[in-house]
Protein backbone atom coordinates (compact mmCIF):
# COMPACT_ATOMS: atom_id res chain seq x y z
CA UNK A 1 0.00 0.00 0.00
CA UNK A 2 1.58 3.25 -1.11
CA UNK A 3 0.88 6.31 1.01
CA UNK A 4 2.52 9.72 0.62
CA UNK A 5 2.85 12.22 3.44
CA UNK A 6 3.31 15.94 3.78
CA UNK A 7 3.25 18.03 6.94
CA UNK A 8 2.03 21.62 6.84
CA UNK A 9 1.97 23.40 10.17
CA UNK A 10 0.02 21.31 12.66
CA UNK A 11 -1.49 19.03 10.00
CA UNK A 12 -0.12 15.84 8.44
CA UNK A 13 -1.59 15.03 5.03
CA UNK A 14 -1.56 11.32 4.19
CA UNK A 15 -2.46 10.60 0.57
CA UNK A 16 -3.63 7.11 -0.41
CA UNK A 17 -1.99 6.34 -3.77
CA UNK A 18 -3.98 3.20 -4.53
CA UNK A 19 -7.39 2.71 -6.16
CA UNK A 20 -8.70 0.29 -3.52
CA UNK A 21 -8.83 -0.20 0.23
CA UNK A 22 -10.47 -3.59 0.57
CA UNK A 23 -10.13 -6.98 2.28
CA UNK A 24 -6.96 -7.73 0.32
CA UNK A 25 -5.23 -4.49 1.34
CA UNK A 26 -6.79 -3.47 4.68
CA UNK A 27 -4.00 -4.83 6.89
CA UNK A 28 -1.36 -3.34 4.61
CA UNK A 29 -3.19 0.03 4.76
CA UNK A 30 -3.29 -0.05 8.57
CA UNK A 31 0.43 -0.85 8.77
CA UNK A 32 1.37 1.86 6.27
CA UNK A 33 -0.90 4.39 8.00
CA UNK A 34 0.63 3.58 11.39
CA UNK A 35 4.11 4.25 9.97
CA UNK A 36 3.02 7.53 8.34
CA UNK A 37 1.19 8.77 11.43
CA UNK A 38 3.74 7.72 14.05
CA UNK A 39 5.17 11.21 14.54
CA UNK A 40 2.20 13.16 13.18
CA UNK A 41 1.08 16.40 14.78
CA UNK A 42 -2.37 16.85 16.34
CA UNK A 43 -4.35 16.66 13.12
CA UNK A 44 -4.13 14.18 10.26
CA UNK A 45 -5.96 14.50 6.94
CA UNK A 46 -6.44 11.30 4.94
CA UNK A 47 -6.74 12.08 1.22
CA UNK A 48 -9.04 9.52 -0.41
CA UNK A 49 -9.16 11.26 -3.78
CA UNK A 50 -7.45 8.41 -5.66
CA UNK A 51 -9.46 5.65 -3.95
CA UNK A 52 -12.19 4.30 -6.23
CA UNK A 53 -13.35 1.37 -4.08
CA UNK A 54 -13.74 0.89 -0.33
CA UNK A 55 -15.41 -2.21 1.12
CA UNK A 56 -16.33 -2.99 4.73
CA UNK A 57 -12.79 -4.17 5.49
CA UNK A 58 -11.43 -0.94 4.08
CA UNK A 59 -13.90 1.07 6.11
CA UNK A 60 -12.81 -0.87 9.19
CA UNK A 61 -9.20 -0.02 8.39
CA UNK A 62 -10.02 3.70 8.19
CA UNK A 63 -11.86 3.48 11.53
CA UNK A 64 -8.85 1.65 13.01
CA UNK A 65 -6.65 4.50 11.76
CA UNK A 66 -8.89 6.98 13.58
CA UNK A 67 -8.67 4.92 16.78
CA UNK A 68 -4.89 4.72 16.43
CA UNK A 69 -4.71 8.52 16.64
CA UNK A 70 -7.29 8.99 19.39
CA UNK A 71 -7.60 10.61 21.85
CA UNK A 72 -4.76 13.07 21.31
CA UNK A 73 -4.93 13.48 17.55
CA UNK A 74 -7.77 13.90 15.07
CA UNK A 75 -8.34 12.25 11.68
CA UNK A 76 -10.22 14.15 8.98
CA UNK A 77 -11.03 12.74 5.55
CA UNK A 78 -10.66 14.58 2.26
CA UNK A 79 -11.97 14.09 -1.27
CA UNK A 80 -13.95 10.84 -1.07
CA UNK A 81 -15.62 10.35 -4.44
CA UNK A 82 -18.42 8.27 -5.92
CA UNK A 83 -18.74 4.84 -4.33
CA UNK A 84 -16.29 5.69 -1.55
CA UNK A 85 -18.31 8.72 -0.47
CA UNK A 86 -21.47 6.61 -0.67
CA UNK A 87 -20.02 3.99 1.71
CA UNK A 88 -19.42 6.69 4.33
CA UNK A 89 -22.95 8.06 3.87
CA UNK A 90 -24.76 4.70 3.88
CA UNK A 91 -22.93 3.52 7.00
CA UNK A 92 -23.48 6.93 8.63
CA UNK A 93 -19.75 7.20 9.19
CA UNK A 94 -20.07 10.68 7.72
CA UNK A 95 -21.39 11.60 11.17
CA UNK A 96 -18.24 10.21 12.82
CA UNK A 97 -15.59 11.75 10.56
CA UNK A 98 -15.14 15.33 9.45
CA UNK A 99 -15.23 14.92 5.67
CA UNK A 100 -13.96 17.69 3.40
CA UNK A 101 -14.83 17.88 -0.31
CA UNK A 102 -11.19 18.29 -1.33
CA UNK A 103 -7.67 18.45 0.08
CA UNK A 104 -7.38 22.24 -0.20
CA UNK A 105 -10.48 22.73 1.94
CA UNK A 106 -9.24 20.18 4.46
CA UNK A 107 -5.84 21.81 4.75
CA UNK A 108 -7.42 25.27 5.11
CA UNK A 109 -9.75 24.09 7.88
CA UNK A 110 -8.59 25.00 11.34
CA UNK A 111 -7.47 22.26 13.68
CA UNK A 112 -10.11 23.48 16.13
CA UNK A 113 -13.03 22.66 13.81
CA UNK A 114 -15.38 19.92 15.06
From TrEMBL:
It comes from the Bacteria. InterPro entries: Anti-sigma_ant (IPR003658), STAS_dom (IPR002645), STAS_dom_sf (IPR036513). PROSITE patterns: STAS. SUPFAM superfamilies: SpoIIaa-like. Residues 21-110 form the STAS domain. GO terms for molecular function: anti-sigma factor antagonist activity. Belongs to the anti-sigma-factor antagonist family. This is Anti-sigma factor antagonist.
Amino acid sequence: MRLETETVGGTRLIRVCEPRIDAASAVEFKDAFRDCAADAPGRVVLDLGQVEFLDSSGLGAVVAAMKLLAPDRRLDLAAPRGKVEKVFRLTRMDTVFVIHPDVATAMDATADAP
